[in-house]
Amino acid sequence: xxxxxxxxxxxxxxxxxxxxxxxxxxxxxxxxxxxxxxxxxxxxxxxxxxxxxxxxxxxxxxxxxxxxxxxxxxxxxxxxxxxxxxxxxxxxxxxxxxxxxxxxxxxxxxxxxxxxxxxxxxxxxxxxxxxxxxxxxxxxxxxxxxxxxxxxxxxxxxxxxxxxxxxxxxxxxxxxxxxxxxxxxxxxxxxxxxxxxxxxxxxxxxxxxxxxxxxxxxxxxxxxxxxxxxxxxxxxxxxxxxxxxxxxxxxxxxxxxxxxxxxxxxxxxxxxxxxxxxxxxxxxxxxxxxxxxxxxxxxxxxxxxxxxxxxxxxxxxxxxxxxxxxxxxxxxxxxxxxxxxxxxxxxxxxxxxxxxxxxxxxxxxxxxxxxxxxxxxxxxxxxxxxxxxxxxxxxxxxxxxxxxxxxxxxxxxxxxxxxxxxxxxxxxxxxxxxxxxxxxxxxxxxxxxxxxxxxxxxxxxxxxxxxxxxxxxxxxx
Length: 477
Hints:
Shape: globular
CATH topology of the domain at 112-212 and 318-411: Polyamine Oxidase, Chain A, domain 2
Mean pLDDT: 85
Number of helices: 13
Helix content: 25-40%
Strand order of the largest sheet: 5-14-15-16-13-18
CATH architecture of the domain at 112-212 and 318-411: Alpha-Beta Complex
Number of strands: 18
């Protein structure tokens, strides 16, 4: 952000401020610090730590990603992958040419096991068949990117319309057709997590193809994603980042003078919540979209141009949560990587909307099996949308009890047994979750209050940690 006027820059070079110390802000600072034309640079970070939605914590005897989880498309065209490789944060397998050439199409891999709500295992052949259908249709949606018009407004409506055509040609018995639809519904839930939305009916069809899919098999950081932002911080000159300095208002397109800089005039003045004022010639704003939505009317003075403000209002912003469950003994096989949950009475072609308190857990896509930490075994579940927000209104005891019952139900007749553990729950910040381009039907009413940090002890069952899904897991739909 800079003035459109003619205010001159200081002879020693322009003063530049970056608002936000997440990976975008750190990346901007890193680039500018390497340029001799920008000797006066500061990053203003509202919290006590850098990294934003990249956050790794030591839990369960190892490192878990409370925020960003994977590098999607780890190959030469991916700047996150390039930085991680430069800092030596990836292993030999992740850096291999073979890994970088894998074409995933941007789709999540098939589950290792699929559990139905009745307690039976779903045929992986049937799951693969439905995955081929679903992801084939997802790929088709990208073809409307430059189309003059689309057949329906949203991705969800297009998928359901095409699935309906396929269903008409199915020749199996009624129970098999019902199970196929239930499996497809689980893929819809998964895509809601990938796209950061409550429903694919809210994701506009026309721009969906803007998301660029890079080659490479998704990978993780063995020592934590936060190692990346730690390295970026270490590369900056000392005291570049000012912590616990939330910005209140950015005054721009003006002519400001500050006593600390006699004789100088600045086009931008950044006012912080604590009253501190930082004059600048240029400001780069990297705060989360949720924060911009919440503070749009007061964060900029004068207000942003109408077209920019309208863009901020229109871009969708959804909630995703991670749920970590710790087990003393695994009930899954040693080579298991992804556990899928299928609710047999659900279908993407039905708009049934049961009360959230009775069915919020049905939006859970299943669990990713994390690498074992010594004798500790951890599953990471993902859940999106209003169900995710409703979960945040529950106590950790209620969440833990519900999910333990779900796992016992789907793994019958070999139920999951939970021991007594201590648990910590970290609920999401509603201003810092996933981004998508909305379209189609109007969004339903949001449920529950904004998330806030909370800690408590669980009574029984597997140990639990809830967090928002953030950072590199976003898709701009």
